[in-house]
Amino acid sequence: MKGLYLLGATGSIGSQTLAIIKEHPHELKLIGCSLGRDHQKNDTILKTFQPEIAVIRYETDLERYQKHYPHIHFVSGDEGLIELAMYDKPGLLINALTGSVGLAPTMKAIEMKKDIALANKETLVMAGDLIKKQLKKYHVKLFPIDSEHSAIWQTLLGEDRKKIQKIVITASGGALRDLSREELETVTVQEALKHPNWFMGAKITIDSATMMNKGLEVIEAHHLFDLEYHQIETVLHDESVVHGLTYFIDGTIKASLSVSDMTIPIQYALFYPDRKPYPKSLALTNLTFKPMDFKRYPLLKLAYEVGQKGGIYPTVLNAANEAAVRLFLANKISFLEIETIIFDAVEKAEPVLNVTLETIISTDRRIQKTITESYEKR
Ligand code: MN3
After folding, report:
1. C-alpha–C-alpha distance, residues 77 and 84, integer Å
2. Per-residue pLDDT tens digits for 24-43
3. What is the mean pLDDT of residues 232-238?
4. What's the gap in Å between 345 CA and the centre of ligand 1?
């Protein structure tokens, strides 16, 4: 029986993870999870999975939950996420949180020698070097859940990493891929949320439309696979069937294909190295590939530059993006202003000489706060 901790149980990845746990009751057991704002959803999860520890968002709800479920240990807020990560039972921690909030509990879980299944790419973007240092120090494994990275990981099994020439990760182009730059000026939140291939949370769907998602994934890939940025390419691929390709020095290319359903990479990370059945089969049809258009998607180009600079810059990029996407979703700014805000933040950023977990977290908070405050009142 494998014990699991699930951060972000009520989100899109979280729900799909719970569905997998439910299908494999003799192999997987949910020890702990973090819940969301929807009390009904929370109740269903608590009743169905009976975890030992649960994180609720607000301290004010603690008493009520504790009364309803006396056998479950409840904690709350960001501190609660840390307590969950520190819970004294071995298990795999699945980080399905959205945004920078996922970083601190991941670092703590590694110290507690819990292996990590990571869907929260922001964690690696902000602190990839620190995370890797800790993984080594505590002999902890990290399995990617992001579909492109799961694909690349699978093409590399049994291979000598030194024989990689480059990798290619694919991008669908998101909800607004058929619009020109001019047409983007008047795009609404609803339009930007209509992703053609994937059903995902709001933040990542907007990130797909701006191509920032691919930018974050390039930085994520750099850390996961120890590759230089010039070895990580992106390509436009409408169908989201091929998720990643690895080019080897001998001319061989390995690609990984699957139905666009996050269940597949989640299941692979949970059961690795085992494979479990999946009900649907992929029908092979025409697949199209187009070179990436960096003029149409300037944020992707910026992400490469920021990744190359390293240090505190990826944190700045990520924080500005998070704040800008939140403002866009709240109808406070236009779609293209997301780009303006991010470019502006990166340009103004001062280098930090000693990048620690503390400087990363404080920079993230400061940037998000400054941006949010200057646009919220409009
Ligand atoms: Mn992805």
Report:
1. 11
2. 999 999 999 999 999 999 99
3. 98
4. 24
Query: How far is the centre of ligand 1, averaged over its atoms, from the C-alpha of 217 (Å)?
Result: 7
Q: How far does the centroid of ligand 1 lie from the alpha carbon of residue 299, in Å?
A: 16
For residue range 299-312, what is the model confidence (pLDDT) as tens digits? 999 999 999 999 99
CA of 148 to the centre of ligand 1 (A): 5
- Where do the domains of the chain lie? 2-144, 148-309
State in Å: Cα 145 to ligand 1 middle: 8
56 near 65, Cβ under 8 Å?
yes
Task: Quote the percentage of the chain above a pLDDT of 70.
Answer: 100
CB 215 within 8 A of CB 299: yes
- pTM exceeds 0.85: yes
Task: Please count the helices (runs of H) and the strands (runs of E) in the chain.
Answer: 15, 12
State the distance from the centre of ligand 1 to the C-alpha of 146, rounded, in angstroms: 5
What tens digit of pLDDT does each residue of 138-174 get? 999 999 999 999 999 999 999 999 999 999 999 999 9
Q: Please spell the DSSP secondary structure of 326-342, one letter per residue.
A: HHHHTTSS-HHHHHHHH
Residue range 2-144 forms a domain whose CATH class is alpha beta
Task: Compute, in angstroms, the gap from residue 73 CA to the centroid of ligand 1.
Answer: 34
Distance 177 CA to ligand 1 centre (A): 16
Q: Which two tokens stand for residue 308?
A: 């190359």
Does the pLDDT value for residue 198 go beyond 90? no
Tell how far the Cα of 109 is from the centroid of ligand 1, in angstroms. 23
Distance 194 CA to ligand 1 centre (A): 16
